[in-house]
Amino acid sequence: xxxxxxxxxxxxxxxxxxTAQTLVSAxxxxxxxLTINGSTNITPFKxxxxxxxxxxxxxxxxxxxNQNKTLISQNQLSVVVKNFxxxxxxxxxxxxxxxxxxxxxxxxxxxxxxxxxxxxxxxxIYTGEALVNITITGKxxxxxxxxxxxxxxxxxxxxxxxxxxxxxxGLTPETKMLGMIKVSEWIKIDFHIICKISIDNEVAxx
Length: 206
Fold this sequence. Notes:
The chain is an alpha+beta fold. The protein has helices at residues 2-18, 51-54, 89-98; strands at residues 20-28, 33-39, 44-50, 59-66, 69-73, 77-80, 106-118, 125-136, 139-152, 155-165, 175-176, 181-182, 186-205. Pfam families: YceI.
């Protein structure tokens, strides 16, 4: 009976530690970037946004750790569509038109959870996946994105890449010059996010 009580107590302590909620502040650094790669039947193009435009204030999120999975709530990154830039002025103009930037000036990204495993002996390099909601022109789609990240002190670098179709958001690829130039429906989103992380306090233990 005593062994059973010890086991139940131990299990209860473990369950508390697994559901501890923590308030975390993340400050996106200037050398971060968000890049969208697309193409026409003639040439590829690249549209990007650097860290100084991605987020100008700290993000405060609540995290819940459950084994290797980190659940993240109360977070949303709002990306100003017209802050994108490109070396191809025509591609940028067409991109802003496609995303209806006047009617939908904000592209939203919400991170739901991270599921990662360490791949280095020191445990500072991880690989895994993130469940992300992306909202474009008011339509939200959910994607699982493979990621890698590493940490140096309180600075974390996250890299990920996802190929998706703009048709997911009800958008139709444009054609130009009487159909001679056709934009591919497929784009590849690359992100290189560098964050300075600080833990504010433990919110609760459920």
